[in-house]
UniProtKB/TrEMBL annotation, chains A, B:
This is Ureidoglycolate lyase. Keywords: Lyase. Its EC number is 4.3.2.3. It comes from the Bacteria.
Amino acid sequence: MPIIRTQPLTAADFAAYGDVLQATGDPDRVINAGFCGRWHDRARLDFGVDGRAGISIFDAQPRSLPYVCDLLERHPEGSQAFLPMHHNDWLVIVAPDAGGRPGQPHAFLAGPGQGINLFRGTWHGVLTPLHSPGLFAVVDRIGPTPNLEEYRLDPPLTVEA
Amino acid sequence: MPIIRTQPLTAADFAAYGDVLQATGDPDRVINAGFCGRWHDRARLDFGVDGRAGISIFDAQPRSLPYVCDLLERHPEGSQAFLPMHHNDWLVIVAPDAGGRPGQPHAFLAGPGQGINLFRGTWHGVLTPLHSPGLFAVVDRIGPTPNLEEYRLDPPLTVEA
């Protein structure tokens, strides 16, 4: 069974897959009489021609490492942002596309305060918090047509710390 | 100086101001082979005719109670959702409109796991976390025209626990 190790989630390393949403570096604006920084419009949202943005809440069961991943999925009709409603680290598995199926997967360890926005069509694992509560706000495409492709990994992939 | 007390944040009590975004009650869908509940499309987003959705990250300085509030604001061109990137309580101050200015304010204590989506045009206080980190993901309107009205409270309002 193939094994990969986690790597820290950085904007540079994640650039092919999506946006890292975090309050690092100088804010784009300082608002509320200096009490609040705003890192402005940091996600490249894309809901296709017939979709719109929606906010949903996900509550996922925490997992632990090593984690066995046997399924990747992608959403051909829209981007999908995961915003942790907690301040713990969590696991992000993604893969490039290789002719309509996932290429070599990568596992990123998102730190406290890091959300992501997956570009439309990015292969990714299911939501994998590593601590309780596994609560996330998800901003994704609400639309009239199917928006899910799945690819079963055979053999499965093991993600180690 | 007028004084108000906080009340728990419930969907019923907040109904005039916006949506409460939380994972309570049964999920609308169970996904990921049973590992994740999805409370689907829970925010009534509204970005007007010339706006679009954006995700920004806010980092606000924590406040404490009693809190003195001397300013309310509203966004005439779009809804604004606040999604805590932490699992602590935080303070939400809102007021109904009363002929173009704020009416009687209300203070809600949002609990861990509770986000909100303010309807377009809802009078509200600035972002007031009560603990560190004061990190929030904000889904609001990105657009070409001004989208802020402010109203100074004179005398200020004191919010007590």
